[in-house]
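Figure 6 in text form: structure in, sequence out.
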């Protein structure tokens, strides 16, 4: 990895004015102050940081006084982690006093924090060497842990003894996977061995924190490689992954085991280019790819010819996704979309427009755009024989496009007739109105009528009478 030089960095990624100003104010008050953590890593990699954290020798109460003296509004969270947040027009900046974290008895948060005098002490609480770089207001980088060398080599390595560091906070195990996936960095062998050893402690970590890391892992560009190496770790959160590892499908449509197939499908979900940051995958699609075949082992049956059948695996996969994602407190809409994609991933309608229309009504036309991507990635991760299904998918997608061009509707409420129209045609108010609308919609789907106001009114009249 070739890092940005200090000159190129200054031109391309000048430190934002508000950050420079605060570094300057703290410096003028006689304190050390640096940009720390992810922002320095990102600037060196030529990426645009999404937020800036400042670390300083200044105690929280003095920081608050310095900000107040300059007329800057702030939020004082000092009692929690020694952090004072400056509230500025172009975003908030957290200013944290150099600190040493105390013992972690809950593997999540330090029992106490002590303010430290120096950057050398502050660096020891940070997770990985690449996240332990400090930059002063002139852009000069302080590297105490060898973070620059690791950034150049593309290596994730803990600051200090990995087993101790994961023992303090097991979330760091998933953070290592997330950074590895996002940047395509390799996890150092000693760090990886400790991750596997401490993985059981992930059970102590809160659902929300796990969910956010899991999303970061599956969306990153190197997700397949990271999960291939870290499958045992991920199995602590999703046990079905371990069952899929090495699971032979005994099918001529498949030429790799269930987990390998899953990872190839995940790799087939396109990466979206994001200006200034790493490319990433759509979270719903990436999560659906991970779960789409996890139901296969429980549905597996071998017939007398030695061929494997996995009937019902999409529904089983949907149940697994629902259980895991709900347990991890993913937002309901997210869970719903992932579950629908998993449930529908193996359905290829017969090649007629009406069947495709009904299919779109069931899955939703917007979600169908994502389903197409998942189905294509799925087909491409089959054997050569299995890939023949692609023609069917393409034809189905052409029919779906044709329906869209024709202005097809996918719900009774979008027909050119309303509930009030039905009532004014003589239908009594109440559930009967909905029934008439549904009957009209069914006739429309069956191709017996078109979505035309006059024709709908005439048919409605016939139904009501
Ligand atoms: P991102 O780009 O995802 O925000 P980041 O490195 O900035 O990455 P943050 O979660 O914003 O990550 O944390 C900022 C810094 O705080 C990290 O770079 C790291 O030095 C430190 N840090 C955060 N979480 C932990 C943790 N669980 N254990 C140790 N250090 C941590
Ligand atoms: Mg950050």
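Output sequence:
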């Amino acid at each position: 990895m070739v890092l940005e030089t200090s000159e190129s960095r200054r031109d391309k990624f000048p430190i934002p004015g508000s950050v420079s100003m605060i570094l300057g104010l703290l410096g003028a008050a006689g304190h050390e102050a640096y940009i720390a953590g992810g922002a320095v890593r990102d600037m060196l990699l030529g990426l645009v940081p999404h937020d800036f954290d400042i670390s300083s020798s200044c105690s929280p109460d003095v920081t608050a006084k310095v900000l107040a003296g300059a007329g800057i509004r702030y939020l004082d969270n000092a009692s929690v982690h020694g952090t004072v947040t400056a509230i500025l027009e172009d975003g908030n900046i957290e200013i944290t006093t150099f600190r040493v974290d105390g013992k972690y008895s809950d593997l999540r948060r330090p029992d106490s924090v002590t303010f430290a005098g120096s950057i050398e002490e502050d660096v020891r609480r940070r997770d990985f060497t690449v996240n332990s770089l400090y930059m002063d207001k002139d852009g000069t980088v302080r590297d105490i842990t060898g973070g620059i060398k690791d950034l150049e080599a593309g290596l994730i390595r803990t600051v200090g003894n990995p087993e101790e560091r994961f023992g303090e906070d097991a979330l760091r195990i998933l953070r290592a996977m997330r950074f590895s996936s996002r940047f395509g960095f390799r996890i150092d062998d000693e760090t990886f061995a400790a991750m596997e050893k401490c993985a059981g402690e992930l059970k102590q970590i809160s659902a929300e924190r796990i969910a956010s890391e899991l999303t970061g892992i599956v969306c990153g560009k190197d997700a397949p490689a990271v999960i291939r190496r870290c499958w045992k770790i991920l199995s602590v959160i999703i046990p079905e992954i371990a069952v899929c590892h090495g699971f032979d499908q005994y099918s001529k449509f498949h030429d790799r085991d269930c987990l390998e197939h899953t990872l190839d499908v995940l790799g087939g979900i396109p990466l979206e280019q994001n200006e200034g940051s790493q490319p990433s995958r759509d979270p719903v699609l990436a999560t659906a790819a991970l779960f789409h075949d996890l139901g296969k082992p429980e549905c597996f049956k071998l017939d007398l010819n030695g061929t494997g059948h996995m009937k019902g695996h999409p529904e089983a996969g949907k149940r697994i996704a629902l259980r895991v994602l709900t347990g991890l407190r993913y937002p309901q809409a997210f869970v719903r979309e992932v579950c629908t994609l998993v449930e529908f991933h193996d359905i290829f309608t017969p090649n007629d427009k009406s069947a495709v229309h009904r299919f779109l009504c069931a899955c939703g036309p917007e979600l169908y755009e994502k389903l197409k991507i998942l189905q294509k990635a799925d087909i491409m991760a089959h054997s050569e024989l299995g890939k023949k299904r692609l023609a069917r998918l393409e034809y189905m997608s052409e029919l779906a496009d044709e329906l869209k061009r024709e202005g097809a509707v996918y719900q009774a409420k979008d027909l050119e007739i309303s509930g009030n129209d039905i009532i004014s045609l003589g239908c009594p108010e109440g559930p009967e109105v909905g029934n008439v609308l549904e009957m009209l919609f069914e006739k429309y789907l069956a191709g017996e009528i078109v979505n035309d106001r006059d024709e709908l009114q005439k048919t409605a009249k016939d139904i009501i009478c």
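Caption detail: Residues 37-38, 53, 126-127, 131-132, 169, 171-172 surround adenosine-5'-triphosphate (ligand 1) (CB under 6 Å).
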